[in-house]
Design brief:
alpha/beta; Glutamine Phosphoribosylpyrophosphate, subunit 1, domain 1; Rossmann fold; seven-stranded antiparallel β-sheet; globular; binds 6-O-phosphono-alpha-D-glucopyranose
Length: 590
């Protein structure tokens, strides 16, 4: 969480560059913002509460060629101007922005207070510049001061810092992402690529335990622990700047929903050899576990059904935050498959660590090439969805399902059949996402947007999609939505149904239909208003959202109208679907 971005180079508008870039990282946190610039008059600091998207970069910037900026997702200390980053050293010369948590900050703070330091915020971050200042007083260079300070920290961090008196940008990473963008006569350092995508596509990925310093002309990398210098590979990334823009859409969420006209095809575009290799690993391993968080977790639950129905193979899902206890079952022959859009989720990285300690292999299915999860895995597949900026995951989720379904078909020895099904599904989604369809769903949202409770039911692979539907609706519209396995209704949740309660039934053209129709009748008998998402229309539906009949790809298709419904529920309730309250897109804290 939290976005950080720094610039050093020949340009004189460093402040503007970092603020504009940071607006593209706002999905990482958006309760307050701040920028520190090195100017002819020394350190210039501007910060405030609220979203950085509302800030005019020109108004807050000074002439400068070195700046760092931050958009915050509060952990330690409330949302106040004082707690917003950057934080300064006691003498005001060192500025720091930080993503992560310094777990032993209280102990360090006491030590510094005994030396006469005073603190202006409640954050853990503020100890960083103060501690660096102490090491600077001992005559250390800025990079040595940061390195020595890092040696004292417990926890996870990505730190960017500069000193008003020294034209050097320094950064260090342990547990939270940092990427260096290489420009002509300039360097960018950010928590994610979209920050500098309009300037360069050449990057160096910083690994855990590494730091970097640059004067804008030369760049140096080293181990934090030993100080030994390292060479880093330059990687050219394939994302284009316009992929990370909204275009004509009002919100990224709707843009990314519409991207699904093509993103399924891109997800299916995999190297056969790689897919067959993965299939072989699944066939030969002794125990295969899927793990992820949030929406990616619901995707994994759907994949349980894919492997069961298509490949007759038992695969288990465990939420990454719950994975640790499973170390008892892990062996060197076990296989862990992790799924993540960002490739940076802390709980997923932790699950991978547990599996690695047991000697198990790890396969990662991710969207962001070069991300921490991508690099830490034994092998990785990309879903090729392009940048996903809205907090609510849409095209990444369907892309992840497409890749997992393709793998299930490969395990069944039917890779071509799987690919054909998915390409056909991609084409059907392309047809489905037309303006009339979107208007129809908007019309349903208009009828139900004042309701505070909403339930979703499904069976088989539509059950995890009912859970995912609930996440989508909750996170953007703040309506209390809950998903259930349709058959579980009568064991408790049905008590919640009142006259007019909206209930969504997710269906396919399959052996579950008869049971689903019975469950719908049970709901209807208690007064529920039924919204059927199904290839066929049934009399029990009050509203019908038609979806193409897609066989085992049905969950991929069925979740899309719910994404649209969630979007309109948010908009009609006056909420910003791209930046829901309390959430962040990339959850890099445990
Ligand atoms: C956050 C996001 C979700 C996402 C989850 C896992 O909670 O808001 O949209 O599903 O993290 O993220 P990942 O990047 O690992 O898929």
């Amino acid at each position: 969480m939290c976005g950080i971005f720094g610039y050093i180079g020949e340009k004189k508008d460093a402040g503007e560059i970092v603020i504009e870039g940071l607006k593209k990282l706002e999905y990482r946190g958006y309760d307050s913002w701040g920028v520190a610039m090195q100017t002819g008059m020394g350190m210039k600091l501007k910060k405030d509460i609220g979203k950085i998207s509302g800030v005019s970069a020109k108004d807050v910037s000074d002439v400068s060629s070195l700046a760092i900026a931050h958009s915050r997702w509060a952990t330690h200390g409330g949302v106040t101007k004082e707690n917003a980053h950057p934080h300064l050293s006691q003498d005001g010369t060192i500025a720091v922005v930080h993503n992560g948590i310094i777990e032993n900050y209280e102990e360090l703070k006491k030590e510094l207070m005994n030396k006469g330091h005073t603190f202006a915020s409640q954050t853990d971050t503020e100890v960083i510049p103060h501690l660096m200042e102490e090491y600077r007083k001992e005559g250390m260079s800025l990079q040595d001061a940061l390195r020595t300070a890092c040696g004292r920290f417990e926890g996870r961090y990505a730190i960017l810092a500069f000193d008003a008196t020294d034209h050097t940008l320094v950064a260090a990473r342990t547990g939270s992402p940092l990427i260096v963008g290489i420009g002509k006569g300039e360097y960018f350092i950010a928590s994610d690529i979209p920050a500098f995508l309009e300037h360069t596509r050449n990057v160096h990925y910083l690994d855990d335990g590494e730091m970097v310093w640059t004067d804008g002309k030369k760049i140096h990398f080293s181990s934090i622990e030993t100080g030994e210098e390292k060479q880093k590979r330059t990687i050219n990334i394939s994302w284009k700047a316009e992929d990370a823009e909204k275009g004509d859409f009002e919100h990224f969420m709707m843009k990314e929903i519409m991207d699904q006209k093509e993103s399924i095809n891109r997800a299916v575009h995999q190297d056969d050899k790689e897919i067959l290799r993965v299939a072989k690993e699944i066939e030969t391993c002794l125990g295969c576990i899927l793990s992820a968080c949030g929406t990616a977790g619901k995707v994994c639950m759907a994949a349980d059904y894919f492997f069961s129905v298509v490949a007759h193979r038992h695969v288990n899902y465990v939420a990454s935050s719950e994975f640790k206890i499973y170390h008892h079952f892990l062996k060197p022959e076990s296989l862990l498959i992790v799924v993540s859009q960002s490739g940076e989720t802390a709980d997923v990285l932790e699950a991978m660590k547990v599996a690695k300690e047991a000697g198990s292999k790890v396969l990662a299915i991710v969207n962001v090439e070069g991300s921490s999860i991508y690099r830490a895995a034994d092998f990785a597949l990309l879903i090729n969805a392009g940048p996903e900026r809205a907090v609510a995951s849409t095209k990444a989720a369907t892309g992840q399902m497409a890749v997992l379904l393709l793998i299930a078909y490969a395990v069944a020895g039917k890779l071509n059949e799987g690919r054909t099904l998915l390409l056909e599904t991609g084409a059907k989604i392309n047809d489905m996402l037309n303006p009339r369809y979107i208007e129809h769903i908007k019309g349903i949202a208009q009828k139900i947007h004042t309701h505070e409770n909403l339930y979703i039911i499904g069976k088989s692979w539509n059950y995890p999609m009912a859970l995912e539907s609930a996440i989508k609706i909750q996170e953007v519209s703040y309506v209390h939505a809950e998903g259930f396995a349709a058959g579980e209704l009568k064991h408790g949740p049905i008590a919640l149904i009142e006259e007019g309660t909206p209930c969504i039934a997710l269906m396919g053209n399959d052996e579950m239909t008869a049971d689903m129709l019975s469950n719908i009748m049970e709901l209807k008998a208690r007064g529920a208003l039924i919204i059927g998402v199904s290839p066929e229309r049934y009399d029990s539906f009050d509203f019908w959202i038609k979806v193409p009949d897609s066989g085992p790809a049905q969950p991929i298709v069925n979740i899309i109208p719910i994404q649209i419904l969630a979007y309109f529920l948010a908009v009609l309730r006056g909420k910003d679907p791209d930046m829901p309250r309390n959430l962040a897109k990339s959850v890099t804290v445990k």
